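Notes, Module 5: Reading structure tokens.

Key idea: the token line is not a picture. It is a compressed description, and you learn to read it the same way you learned to read a sequence, by spotting repeated patterns. We will look at two proteins. The first is printed below with its tokens.
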Amino acid sequence: MTYEELTRKLDAIEAELRNLGYLKGEVGEPERVDSAFGMNEMSFEGWLARVFVPAARQRIAEKDLPDESQVGTAAIKNLDGCTEAEELVSLLCEFDQAVEEMSGKRRPRYF
């Protein structure tokens, strides 16, 4: 996985957010929020569009990724039962996996 490939994954997430109507206009600087991660101040979908996407773009551009990402896990929890968001949840889970792969941390797979 490269930073360019990770950027393409984020592009797909942004496109799906736009397709679902969660993202209006252009993505800019990460929005400042008062509570931890802004989760108490806006919907999960709003947080994805206004905080996660711009912050992830910034971290990718700086080549400064965290060791892990749990946005896919949060999406599973927050978008449970929302069938139109299934593609978005899948893309976010793929993003988690890509970040962990790039950091060298691989979780064991269970089946």
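Here is the second protein, with the sequence above and the tokens below, as before.
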Amino acid sequence: MPQPRLTRDEKRAETRAALVRSAADVFARRGFHAASVDEIAENAGFSVGALYSNFERKEDLLLAAIEQNVSDWARLFAERFRESDNIHDQARSIADAWIAGVTAEPEPFLLWIELWAYAVRNDRLRDELAVRSRTIRDLFTSMMHEAAAQMGVTMPDDLADELGAVFDALGLGLAIRRLLDQDAVPDGLFGTASSRIADALLRDLPAAD
């Protein structure tokens, strides 16, 4: 049976997705500054004109690639969270998955660091990267609320926000240290620390009404 023809919007979405995948591949191999839009377009099987009809700047391609990577991590973290109904195991599973993933495939995280170093000196990029980077923090905040409900306790919104920020920053910092000196962040360190922090704080909260 012949496949239905794609609409113009569907074709554009397919082209954009292919360019983002190609950009992630080329950036991972060459780094942000060494990668060229010509190579990204050629690697995806499109012209440079097709690339520029979807993205104005090379930075926009990297932002899109990072956004996709963040979305993939968020989906994995949500899956790990659903595998258990107690915060001790949930926090450990998520933290262990993060450290294992960064160790096995560091290039996407190194690209994030590269863009971070570039973006903090550029107002437009800094704001856009900050927005995309809040996804994981917001997810952790939501998880803290859900974990509290599972334990039958009440977690104030400000505390959930603070914990989301702490776990997000702790994960980034430990990943940076791990890639520089693996002995400084042994397997299980982030998982153990996260589970202890979350478990201890939740147990001190008042029972829900």
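Summary for the second protein:
- Residues 85 and 150 are 7 Å apart (CA to CA).
- The mean pLDDT is 91.
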